[in-house]
Specification:
The protein is of the alpha/beta class. It folds into 2 domains: 44 residues, Orthogonal Bundle (Arc Repressor Mutant, subunit A); 253 residues, 3-Layer(aba) Sandwich (Rossmann fold), CATH 3.40.50.1360. Helix content is 45%, strand content 12%. The strands form 2 sheets. Strands 1-10-9-5-2-3-4 form a 7-stranded parallel beta sheet. Strands 6-7-8 form a 3-stranded antiparallel beta sheet, covered by helices on one side. Strand 9, helix 13 and strand 10 form a beta-alpha-beta unit. Helix 1 packs across helix 3. The longest helix has 19 residues. The protein is elongated. The two termini are 49 Å apart.
């Protein structure tokens, strides 16, 4: 227990510093004590409870929920945003949050992989502010985008516009996301332009992905890069709850292995786990099971989601993490 005169000095220094806003050098002059003494007294004032730190969270922020998500699922970071339940509005709100996150964390010289068919990622690109700060950055399409001619512009424009906005260079994956047979895929993967994109997959340092439910989103459905309803039903019967880049996984985040996987041209789930930072931008009631599976399987390590989804993810027990650790 500190003596009364020591407590008096702590209280006086703490009041001058925290309440009056005086600098330590000014306190030294007024009290005729050394600056190291001021610093030591301030630290002791905290230990004695004279100074207590209170954080008042602004309305609309959910720091405690973000920390709980990070702890429960082993995430590097979680960002939770308020949003209405409308799926389109959720995508726009998540996209705006993802744009801010990217603008504050992106470093020059990275290879950024982006999944083409995501309404939230499109919203992210729409919300980005133009800059030329990251001229040595490459933006790589990691899911085939050729399909319905009316939607193809969307697929390629997400990658191109993203690269233009940040001042980087775009590399497209000029192939469909889903083809009719394994043989067709094998032929396409030997195309030199497709091969050039695929060869860059191991170089990706940051991946921006959506998380899909087994039922395709409107954006993906419009592209034609989907499986038939019968094929989707077969995937669900084998335990699939969602996909990233059309690679389907079960509630534990393990890949659901079927012949359908041999018809997809995109980044593999095992490749995804080797990427240092994988940012998933996903939310809404329809995707909660899929998001939970992706988290359980260590497929992503940064999650940007809405408040309703975050609360649902915290209310449920996570699936067993047997899908493999991040390397």
């Amino acid at each position: 227990m500190a003596r009364l005169d020591e407590l008096r000095l702590m209280a006086k220094v703490a009041h001058m510093y925290h309440t009056q806003g005086l600098r330590q050098a000014t306190i030294c002059e007024r009290l005729n004590i050394h600056q190291s003494t001021v610093s030591r007294v301030l630290k002791r004032a905290e230990r004695e409870g004279i100074v207590r730190t209170t954080v008042s969270l602004p309305t609309g922020t959910h720091t405690e929920i973000e920390v709980a998500l990070q702890s429960k699922y082993g995430l590097q970071e979680a960002i939770v945003v308020d949003s209405m339940e409308d799926e389109g509005q959720v995508a726009r709100d998540l996209g705006a949050a993802a744009a801010f996150y990217l603008e504050t964390t992106l470093k020059d010289g990275q290879v950024i992989g982006i999944s083409s068919w995501s309404a939230a990622l499109l919203a992210m690109v729409n919300a980005l502010h133009p800059t030329q700060k990251w001229k040595n950055t490459r933006v790589l399409q990691i899911l085939g985008g050729v399909g319905n001619p009316n939607a193809e512009v969307h697929a390629t424009s997400v990658t191109r516009r993203f690269a233009d906005l940040i001042g980087g260079e775009a590399t497209l994956l000029p192939a469909p996301g889903v083809v009719g047979s394994k043989e067709a895929r094998d032929v396409l993967m030997e195309d030199r332009f497709v091969r050039a994109a695929l060869d860059l997959f191991p170089s990706v340092t940051l991946a921006l992905v959506g998380i899909g439910a087994t039922e395709p989103s409107p954006a993906l459905a419009s592209s034609g890069n989907i499986f038939s309803p019968q094929e989707v039903s077969r995937l669900a019967a084998q335990g699939a709850v969602g996909d990233i880049c059309l690679r389907f996984f079960n509630p534990a985040g393990q890949q659901v292995v079927t012949e359908l996987n041999d018809r997809v041209i995109s980044l593999e789930l095992d490749q995804l786990r080797t990427i240092p930072r994988v940012v998933a931008v996903a939310g809404g009631k329809r995707k909660i099971g899929a998001i939970r599976g992706a988290l359980a399987g260590n497929l992503v390590n940064v999650l940007i989601t809405d408040l309703g989804s975050a609360e649902a993810l915290l209310a449920e027990q996570p699936a067993s993490k047997k899908a493999g650790k991040r390397r």
